[in-house]
Design brief:
The complex is a heterotrimer of chains A (440), B (265) and C (450).
Chain A (H helix, E strand, L loop, with lengths): L2 H4 L9 H25 L3 H22 L4 H25 L4 H23 L7 H6 L9 E4 L2 E4 H19 L1 H9 L1 H6 L4 H23 L1 H18 L3 H26 L3 H19 L5 H31 L3 E2 H8 L2 H13 L3 E4 L2 E4 L1 H25 L7 H7 L5 H14 L18
Antiparallel strand pairs in A: 1-2, 3-5, 4-5
Helix pairs in contact in A: 2-3, 2-7, 2-10, 2-11, 2-12, 3-4, 3-5, 3-10, 3-11, 4-5, 4-10, 7-10, 10-11, 11-12, 11-13, 12-13, 14-16, 14-17, 17-18, 17-19
Chain B lengths: L10 E12 L2 E12 L3 E5 L6 H8 L7 E6 L11 E4 L13 H6 L3 H4 L7 H13 L15 H14 L4 E5 L7 H16 L3 E5 L3 H7 L2 E5 L3 E6 H4 L2 H8 L4 H12 L8
Parallel strand pairs in B: 3-7, 3-8, 5-6, 6-7
Antiparallel strand pairs in B: 1-2, 1-4, 8-9
Chain C lengths: L1 H7 L4 H26 L5 H8 L1 H11 L4 H25 L4 H25 L6 H8 L7 H20 L1 H9 L1 H6 L4 H23 L1 H15 L6 H25 L13 H19 L5 H29 L6 H7 L6 H11 L3 E4 L2 E4 L1 H24 L4 H11 L5 H11 L32
Antiparallel strand pairs in C: 1-2
Helix pairs in contact in C: 2-8, 2-11, 2-12, 2-13, 3-5, 3-6, 3-11, 3-12, 4-5, 4-6, 5-6, 5-11, 7-11, 8-11, 11-12, 12-13, 12-14, 13-14, 15-17, 15-18, 18-19, 18-20
Classes of the chains: A mainly alpha (440), B alpha/beta (265), C mainly alpha (450).
Chain lengths: 440, 265, 450
């Protein structure tokens, strides 16, 4: 019988493709949630190390047991996976070798051993190194197993079981893992046994590597362990949210990767990596807080705001001093670039803060009120710097020029009180140059 | 001695209205100070006051948000060969496979430039520097086998090998024993007698008056600077260490939250 | 046997090529890799090796030609691109170095696999060429390959020699290098490019993962044997070359596994296993830094401390007129299991102690040594008490730790500082110059000390 037909729901509702997508998403979600720990412990390459190092575990388990039974494979891989973690940490501690270097020594040697073992065993097993590297996600629904009367793809069922184990462990150890990831020393001081927690996580990662690598290959495990977690790290600063996001991103990479692979008719594993990398790139560029473009945009907005406020300030001072307007050229001289001034003037005009008359710019009534605020803050800060820090009056302008754009009303109020205390209470407040400080 | 005689009069370092933002948070507000040439100057202030930041800004290791810094009246790039630097001991990898002599010889690398090998004369200069800090017997030791005081002496010897006119030192007395402290001080005094300028970040208020002749007192801003007799007063000390000005902290925080500290045009 | 003879005498031209090629590769990879390891960038080589794969595919897709130089050029371009991507991620995002390495590794390699899947479907393409890059085929090396490897290795080594002092300073003290006005990031990039060159030419020979091994393991191994950079690099090169040579030789000599399709034992894994064995041997047997040497040093020190404790206990028991039996000695301090017995055995063998029907007494030579020990112990106690202001009941513990390391010169300094010449502090044992214990006689017998 064609095994595909024996799958439940296969047909228009739950097609073959959907089973593959479900499998890929499960792998992505599992790796994503565990990767957060590696990322925060700065051990991202441990995923790479473990997923390579389990090769001799698989080969050894096969040679010893003579079967490709999953239990044996899992056992062999978990043993070698944890061994990798132990050896890496041991070499680091005992022989004082840098952590990344000891990782490199351990996993490459184990991998070489694995390749040799496989070339001995290859005669009667289709455990070829190529499959280890890129897996065969596309064919997972062909190999089914019967559970609770349902015919399920074997790999999917295994992954689902792994997901349950991972969820239970992560939920039970949530606060321990969080603390160990952030501050192992504090965790130890609180009696949390960070080493034990660490090896629980290493064992989980080794286990997930095994159940995943069969379907997606070892490289994909590496990519899925780190890329979704790093993407999530760019999007949020909270550990719990980061784990949820990484799970979702991992699942999306898995599913999206399969669809892309189908479209391009190429390896699913490779496409899952590409989709994951695409998410990372998007987050690196557009993440609201940490994205490169968002930062650039924020910076540009800030520059424009500062330019607007500087123009208001200049106009206010001009009105105060000579009671006259300023030309666009004069503004450009004071503020910097022409186009920035032009753009700022357009915005200011639209908000009714300035009017332009015969190429002369002057403040409106509303503009005057708004400008008073910045000039006031500027002069308060100047007074504060001269009075409290003892800076000479001719040195404080530059500092005040910057700070005036950032000081919130509450701090401004405190500044006013502070400056009031240093000046005679009868007269209005003045700045170090003797000019009056306007109120808000 | 350097080929061109060091300027013993005038200003060695002029810090003009410098604001430094570190990770966008301003850590130094409008610092304006001139260190006279030929002085033995201390930079003091509480933890996190920006002492190392000022030193690194002078060395061009940190970008400054506004203001300018001149060394012997010129931009740093033109007089880099005249400046030697002693970083904090914790900043390097002491397990690195180099010997004491190797480290001291690094002091000659600046004037050599890329690709060129140290000559006989460079090696002799390194040996002389090692001798002047009393570390000749440790010449071929691996650096991880040294005590804290010995490591500090090696760093000092490296700076001496630079044969500079201006020495910038980040906590040269931190974590050293009393004997080492005295011998380091002797070296600093000798440098001064040769007409060179030394500016050191210092944390021990007890010894400021006896070790140095010029002081700059920092706490996010410059509290006072001048000859030790006038500037190192009880009043200035209280203003430096008597807690931060909370308003200064609040504005610093507001500027940080506001995004970036824009560079001056 | 004749096979072995042919190998040793290098008569087989194929074997000769393989040995030359892997030897040169091991040498260059060892030297460059050692620098990368010292710069804490051990795993960059691993990521580079993976990141080069899409370059091979792109080269094939563009030129539609199966040419090794073109493949390597593509690999080099993508390797350098990978390094730049890592730098960009580190510089422009909050992601740290380790994750940047892993992201580049996974993403680039994934791209490579996807591209190779596409190539496979082309009428002109099949995966075999690419699989060669994944696992390496050292046994198939020909003259041209060896020439290429040798030239690239020479270039990389030349780069290291020319910029030796720069790499040394940047590795040790970046801040100082920056204060000299050096472009530290440019130097880092040059090092990574040299790494990329060596990695890329090594891929066809040993494959992706095993190339990483050849870069990392010799450098880590060399650190066990030397404390100086030049010998360190030379040794790393030597270990790398040795791994290449022995590995290839083994693969030519050993009978191929029945299943294997290739002619001999797979060369790449053998080279790495040889490198791994050299590492384990160094880890265990290197003088000073090796585990055995360090274990022996620690043991000797512990024995020395035990011996001195025994002498002191015997002296103090004699002082208190208590017979020193195994029981009374055991009661004086917490000995580690068996350590009292072995200390006694050593003392008896050394004739420092005599055993008269299970009662132990110091011999003349033992007494002299015990006096020396007890003198430094009590002087140190006195010094701590008088100059460091430590309370007498806490003194003993500190003294226990330090006294074993007091040199004769230090002892002389204590004496001078404590002005022991006036005889006042030397109420007992004055003739021997032993100051009185700060503890009342006998009190320490009941004291169990760590």
């Amino acid at each position: 019988m064609n095994p595909i037909l024996s799958l439940p729901f296969v047909g228009p509702l739950f097609s073959y493709d959907l089973w593959v997508i479900a499998t890929a998403s499960l792998v992505g979600a599992l790796c994503g949630v565990l990767g957060c720990y590696l990322l925060l412990r700065r051990l991202s390459m441990l995923g790479d190390a473990i997923s390579h190092a389990i090769l001799p575990g698989l080969a050894g388990a096969f040679i010893l047991s003579g079967s490709r039974d999953l239990v044996w494979m899992l056992l062999g891989a978990a043993v070698v996976g944890v061994l990798t973690g132990v050896l890496t940490a041991g070499l680091h501690r005992v022989a004082k070798i840098a952590e990344d270097a000891s990782m490199g020594v351990v996993f490459t040697t184990l991998f070489a051993l694995g390749v040799l073992l496989i070339s001995f065993a290859a005669r009667n097993v289709d455990l070829d190194p190529g499959c280890v590297l890129y897996g065969l996600l596309e064919f997972t629904p062909l190999d089914t197993v019967r559970i609770l009367g349902l015919e399920l793809p074997r790999v999917t069922a295994t992954l689902a079981a792994a997901a349950i184990v991972v969820t239970v462990v992560l939920a039970a150890l949530h606060k321990e893992i969080k603390l160990v990831a952030f501050d192992p020393a504090l965790a130890a001081a609180l009696g949390m046994r960070p080493t034990l927690v660490h090896f629980v996580m290493v064992a989980l990662i080794a286990g997930v590597s095994v159940v995943s690598f069969e379907s997606v290959g070892s490289i994909l495990v590496v990519a899925l362990l780190v890329t979704p977690a790093a993407t999530a790290h760019l999007l949020t600063d909270r550990y719990a949210r980061m784990m949820i996001l990484a799970t979702i991103l991992g699942a999306l990479s898995g599913g999206g990767g399969y669809l892309l692979a189908k479209h391009l008719d190429t390896s699913t594993a490779g496409c899952v990596c590409i989709v994951g990398a695409f998410f990372f790139l998007a987050a690196a560029l557009f993440s609201p807080r940490h994205g490169v473009l968002s930062r650039l945009a924020r910076h540009a907005t800030l520059r424009l705001r500062i330019c607007r406020e500087d123009i208001l300030g200049m106009l206010y001072r001009a009105a105060e001093l000579r009671s006259r307007a300023l030309s666009r050229d004069e503004l450009t001289q004071g503020v910097g670039s022409t186009w920035l001034v032009d753009l700022a003037l357009i915005l200011l005009r639209r908000r009714g803060l300035v009017v332009t008359h015969d190429a002369a710019v002057r403040l409106t009534e509303r503009g005057h009120i708004e400008a008073r605020q910045f000039v006031g803050t500027h002069r308060l800060w100047e007074s504060f710097l001269t009075a409290r820090l003892g800076l000479p009056p001719d040195h404080v302008h530059a500092a005040a020029h910057k700070a005036e754009h950032f000081i919130p009303p509450a701090v401004r109020e405190k500044l006013a009180q502070d400056v009031r205390a240093t000046q005679p209470s009868t007269s209005p407040l003045t700045d170090p140059h003797g000019r009056q400080i306007p109120g808000p | 001695m350097p080929a061109d005689t060091p300027p013993t009069t005038g200003i060695a370092v002029e810090v003009h209205d410098v604001t430094v933002a570190y990770h966008r948070k301003p850590v130094l507000w409008d610092v304006d100070v001139s260190f006279p040439a030929g002085s033995l100057a201390a930079i003091v202030g509480p933890n996190g006051a920006g002492k190392s930041t000022l030193l690194k800004s002078i060395l061009g290791l940190l970008p400054i948000a506004s203001g300018r810094i001149e060394v012997f009246g010129k931009p740093l790039a033109q007089v880099r060969d005249l400046v030697a630097y002693v970083p904090q001991r914790e900043s390097v990898d002491w397990e690195f496979p180099v010997s004491v002599f190797d480290v001291v010889l690094m002091g000659r690398f600046g004037r050599l430039g890329w690709f060129r090998r140290p000559s006989r004369a460079d090696r002799d200069a390194a040996d002389a520097a090692l001798h002047s800090v009393g570390m000749t017997e440790f010449r071929d030791r691996q650096i991880s086998q040294l005590s804290g005081g010995q490591q500090q002496r090696v760093f000092l010897a490296r700076a001496l090998a630079q044969d500079a006119t201006l020495y910038l030192m980040d906590e040269p007395f931190a974590g050293v024993d009393a004997a080492t402290e005295q011998s380091i001080l002797e070296v600093l005094r000798t440098l001064q007698q040769q007409g060179r300028t030394v500016i050191a970040v210092h944390h021990d208020l007890q010894t400021v008056r006896s070790y140095f002749d010029f002081v700059a007192m920092l706490n996010l801003h410059l509290v006072a600077a001048g000859p030790i007799e006038t500037a190192f007063s009880a009043d200035n000390l209280k203003r430096t260490y008597g807690g931060r000005l909370t308003l200064l902290d609040e504005v610093t925080e507001a500027v940080r939250r506001g995004g970036t500290l824009p560079r001056s045009p | 046997m004749s096979e072995l003879l042919r190998l040793i005498t290098l008569q087989d031209s194929n074997t000769r090529m393989v040995l030359l090629g892997t030897g040169a590769l091991g040498l260059a990879a060892g030297v460059i890799g050692a620098l990368a390891v010292l710069r804490r960038r051990a795993l960059v080589g691993d990521a580079l090796a993976h990141a080069a794969l899409p370059g091979v595919c792109v080269a094939f897709l563009v030129f539609r030609e199966r040419s090794l130089p073109l493949f390597l050029l593509g690999a080099l371009v993508f390797g350098v691109l990978g390094v730049l991507t890592m730098n960009a991620i580190r510089r422009f995002t909050r992601i740290k170095e380790d994750a940047a390495i892993a992201i580049v590794l996974g993403s680039f390699f994934g791209l490579g696999i996807a591209l190779s899947g596409i190539i496979q479907r082309l009428p002109s393409g099949n995966r075999a060429g690419l699989d060669g890059f994944l696992f390496g085929k050292a046994a198939g090396m020909v003259q041209a390959d060896v020439t290429l490897i040798a030239a690239s290795s020479a270039l990389a080594l030349f780069g290291v020699v020319a910029l030796y002092k720069e790499f040394k300073l940047v590795g040790f003290d970046r801040a100082f290098a920056g204060s000299l006005g050096w472009r530290v990031s440019l130097l880092d990039l040059i090092l990574m490019c040299l790494l990329a060159i060596v990695t890329v030419v090594g891929l066809p020979a040993v494959g992706v993962v095993l190339m990483a091994a050849l870069l990392i393991i010799p450098g880590v191994t060399a650190r066990f044997w030397t404390d100086r950079l030049a010998p360190h690099l030379a040794l790393a090169g030597f270990f790398g070359m040795l791994s290449g040579l022995i590995g290839s030789a083994l693969s030519a000599v050993l009978p191929a596994p029945e299943s294997s399709l290739s002619r001999g034992f797979p060369t790449g894994p053998l080279i790495v296993l040889v490198a791994g064995s050299l590492f384990v041997l160094s880890l265990l047997f290197a003088p000073r830094r090796g585990l055995i040497a360090r274990w022996r040093t620690a043991r000797r020190l512990q024995q020395h401390i035990d011996d001195e404790h025994l002498l002191r206990d015997l002296y103090e028991l004699q002082e208190a007129n208590t017979p020193a039996t195994l029981a009374s000695l055991t009661a004086r301090r917490t000995w580690r299991k068996g350590s009292l017995q072995s200390a006694l055995r050593r003392a008896l063998a050394n004739a420092d102690v005599s055993d008269r029907s299970a009662i132990f007494t110091l011999t003349d030579s033992g007494l002299t040594r015990a006096v020396r020990v007890i003198r430094s112990h009590r002087l140190w106690e006195l010094y701590l008490h008088e100059h460091a202001g430590v309370a007498p009941d806490h003194v003993d513990r500190d003294a226990d730790l330090i006294e074993h390391f007091i040199t004769p010169e230090l002892l002389a300094k204590f004496e001078a500082q404590l002005a022991l010449g006036d005889g006042d502090a030397l109420r007992t044992g004055a003739a021997l110059g032993v100051p009185l214990s700060l503890h009342p006689p006998g009190s320490s017998t009941s004291e169990a000390r760590p």
